[in-house]
């Protein structure tokens, strides 16, 4: 029987292989053509070999300068790549930019004494590490167990290190991750060679702080290691080669949105990216220039699942106008459908996008061409410009942070827009695509709070997304993913786009008569109490209401099934009741189901003479809130932008302090530590 089964299995595999050569070739292109590092010994490994051991990797490749990064949106990753390249080209170091989640650290105690480790770490939310840094963060801060037991007192005494953090000072736990990792490394005996650098996204000073910090790092290493600087011109790290048989039309663009998202975000196949059909979409606002899309995604049969409070990650598409601008400005328009292959010059360089693609696919689906411009990118571009006036203008931007802010950052210009407005009419900028790959970040998924309950809609994920254009003289700034989802909604419902609304090529979103998105479920700690009898206080503004819709939806279902439900109070802020007060009929339905156990308090900031926000509601209804917090251990939730969250927190601290004998700041701190105070802010 086993022989028959084996034979049948072999025939089946042979049939599948022959029937789907295109699929297998795509897997080879997207999975196998990302740059890999050749192991020493030509594949021969010893019994103790561990390809994930970072010390083994360093020794095999002769690395003496490794830059670890923890990155959520790509900023820390980009800084790490830049620093590693600068160390190699400027000082002749053997460098590696290392994704923290790709290695294990049990033998970190054997880190080479002649080497330097740099940690570039982002913090988000409540001082949490990024997804790729979470395992390392837990390992290094929670009594790490090193394989080398001979150095029990100072296991990292051989390590020389530096650290830089990316955070936002509007969050309470500003740069908490890099601070905790630094403290852990020092406790374990590692020696820091320069002060811990910190970049503040809230003030827009991340890049300036990084530039200043890295120069201090190089100066310290000059003194410690005797580094000598080389006079070198910036050279690209990649080679872009058009295929010999140039294919016209869209033959080079026939990869699905799911294949692209997997190749970009999940080359190892460890994540759950799936193609999910759009089940329903509708408009929630009555505003003339702001749009709020409620969208429901069908995850039945996809293998995806979620828990109330989780996030859904959406893979977006760049707008047609920005794709065309980017390709035209950099002289790629005529060859936009040419298939190209990208390879790395240095073995440790990681190709930022799939190695086989087209210029159009790269601009539309793989590069964040609508994202912010960095000063370091501008300084690189200058080397390739031929027009003297344009070169002088960009040199000033690269060297003067104040001028850069006024001319670029404050106007939310992307790189193609900047080059366009500083060029003469019709002028093409001769910057090689290989350089653009280093200066434009890869496109990143956007994360949204799920606005449905997994108890009520197990097979459906709801999200609530607002598209709010920012108006400048003669142009409008549009968010990438929010407007993409608005375009998907428009197409699905047969609606016409409004004036100045960007269009999108939805070819890869269409599956027959339906529309499909590439999505992933992202786990969150934003959770209702396990015991439904506990009271909850929810505070949100704008689309910060999304997870609270899910919470109330779940509590209504529990109440209808006979489960005891604690009091639920929702403070909700928006502009006007007639314009952007969303899910109003659902709140009324919830009040009928939950009765006195549910109360809704609203603040409409532009409806009355004096503006009223959610923090003002807290003061007005302190008698409702304080007893729940102080005597009934209510769970407290805040969702929305960081400024609102900070104001709400300050108000609560003042109320608790003035109305009780308890220190408000200490009370909220303790509540957070016990999981009774949770935030989902951005």
From TrEMBL:
Q: Which residues form the FAD-binding FR-type domain?
A: 271-529
| NADP found in the keyword field | yes
Q: Which cofactor does it need?
A: FMN; FAD
Its primary localisation, in coarse terms, equals: endoplasmic reticulum
Residue ranges of every copy of the Flavodoxin-like domain listed in the record: 65-218
- Give the keywords, sorted: Endoplasmic reticulum, FAD, Flavoprotein, FMN, Lipid biosynthesis, Lipid metabolism, Membrane, NADP, Oxidoreductase, Signal, Steroid biosynthesis, Steroid metabolism, Sterol biosynthesis, Sterol metabolism, Transmembrane, Transmembrane helix
Q: Where in the cell is it found?
A: Endoplasmic reticulum membrane
Gene3D superfamilies attached to this UniProt entry: 3.40.50.360, NADPH-cytochrome p450 Reductase, Chain A, domain 3, Nucleotide-binding domain of ferredoxin-NADP reductase (FNR) module, Translation factors
Renumbered to this chain, the signal peptide range is: 1-19
Recorded superkingdom: Eukaryota
Q: Which reaction does it catalyse?
A: 2 oxidized [cytochrome P450] + NADPH = 2 reduced [cytochrome P450] + NADP(+) + H(+)
Is Endoplasmic reticulum tagged as a keyword? Answer: yes
Enzyme Commission identifier(s):
1.6.2.4
How would you classify this enzyme at the top EC level? oxidoreductase
Which protein family is named in the record?
In the C-terminal section; belongs to the flavoprotein pyridine nucleotide cytochrome reductase family.
Function, as annotated: This enzyme is required for electron transfer from NADP to cytochrome P450.
* Name of protein: NADPH--cytochrome P450 reductase
Species per Swiss-Prot/TrEMBL record: Bionectria ochroleuca
């Amino acid at each position: 029987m086993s022989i028959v089964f084996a034979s049948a299995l072999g025939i089946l595999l042979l049939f599948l292989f022959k029937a789907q050569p295109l699929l297998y070739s795509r897997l080879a292109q997207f999975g196998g053509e990302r740059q890999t590092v050749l192991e020493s010994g030509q594949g021969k490994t010893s019994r103790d070999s561990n390809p994930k051991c970072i010390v083994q990797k360093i020794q095999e490749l002769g690395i003496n300068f490794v830059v670890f990064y923890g990155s959520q949106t790509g900023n820390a990753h980009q800084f790490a790549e830049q620093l590693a390249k600068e160390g190699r080209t400027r000082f002749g170091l053997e460098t590696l930019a290392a994704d923290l989640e790709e290695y294990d650290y049990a033998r970190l105690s054997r880190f080479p004494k002649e080497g330097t480790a740099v940690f570039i770490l982002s913090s988000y939310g409540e001082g949490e590490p990024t997804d790729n840094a979470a395992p390392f963060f837990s390992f290094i801060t929670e009594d790490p167990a090193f394989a080398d037991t001979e150095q029990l007192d100072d296991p990292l005494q051989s390590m020389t290190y530096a650290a830089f953090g990316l955070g936002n000072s509007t969050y309470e736990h500003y740069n908490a991750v890099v601070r905790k990792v630094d403290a852990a490394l020092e406790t374990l005996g590692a020696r820091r060679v320069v002060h811990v650098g910190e970049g503040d996204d809230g003030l827009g000073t991340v890049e300036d702080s990084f530039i200043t910090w890295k120069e201090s790092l190089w100066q310290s290493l000059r003194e410690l290691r005797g580094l000598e600087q080389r006079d070198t011109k910036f050279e690209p790290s990649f080679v872009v080669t058009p295929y010999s048989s140039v294919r016209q039309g869209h033959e080079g663009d026939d990869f699905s949105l799911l294949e692209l998202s997997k190749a970009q975000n999940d080359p190892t196949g460890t994540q759950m990216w799936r193609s999910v059909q759009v089940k329903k979409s509708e408009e929630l606002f009555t505003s003339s220039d702001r749009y709020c899309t409620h969208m429901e995604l069908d995850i039945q049969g996809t293998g995806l699942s979620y828990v109330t409070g989780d996030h859904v990650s959406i893979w977006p598409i760049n707008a047609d106008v920005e794709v065309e601008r980017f390709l035209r400005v950099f002289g790629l328009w005529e060859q936009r459908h040419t298939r190209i292959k990208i390879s790395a010059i240095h073995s440790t360089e990681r190709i930022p996008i799939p190695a086989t693609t087209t210029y159009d696919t790269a601009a539309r689906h793989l590069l964040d061409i609508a994202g912010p411009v960095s000063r370091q990118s501008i300084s690189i571009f200058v080397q390739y410009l031929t027009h003297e006036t344009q070169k002088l203008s960009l040199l000033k931007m690269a060297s003067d942070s104040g001028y850069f802010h006024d001319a670029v950052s404050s106007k939310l210009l992307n790189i193609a827009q900047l080059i366009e407005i500083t060029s003469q009419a019709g002028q093409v900028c001769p910057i090689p695509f290989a350089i653009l790959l280093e200066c434009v970040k890869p496109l990143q998924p956007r994360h949204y709070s799920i606005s449905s309950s997994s108890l009520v809609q197990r097979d459906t994920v709801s999200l609530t997304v607002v598209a709010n254009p920012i108006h400048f003289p003669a142009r409008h700034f549009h968010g990438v993913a929010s407007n993409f989802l608005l375009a998907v909604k428009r197409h699905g419902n047969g609606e016409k786009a409004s004036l100045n609304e960007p269009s999108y090529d939805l070819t890869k979103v269409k599956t027959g008569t339906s529309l499909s998105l590439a999505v992933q479920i992202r786990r969150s700690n934003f959770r209702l109490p396990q015991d439904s009898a506990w009271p909850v206080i929810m505070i949100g503004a704008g689309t910060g209401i999304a997870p609270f819709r899910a919470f109330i939806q779940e509590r209504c279902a529990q109440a209808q099934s006979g489960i005891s439900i604690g009091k639920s109070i929702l403070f909700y802020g928006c502009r006007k009741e007639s314009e952007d007060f969303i899910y109003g009929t659902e709140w009324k339905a919830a009040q009928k189901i939950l009765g006195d156990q549910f109360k809704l308090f609203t603040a409409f900031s532009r409806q009355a003479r004096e503006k009223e926000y959610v923090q003002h509601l807290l003061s007005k209804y302190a008698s409702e809130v304080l007893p729940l917090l102080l005597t009934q251990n209510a769970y407290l939730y805040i969702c929305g932008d960081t400024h609102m969250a900070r104001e709400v927190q300050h108000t609560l601290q003042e109320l608790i302090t003035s109305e009780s004998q308890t220190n408000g700041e200490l009370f909220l701190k303790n509540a957070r530590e016990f999981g009774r105070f949770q935030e989902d802010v951005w």
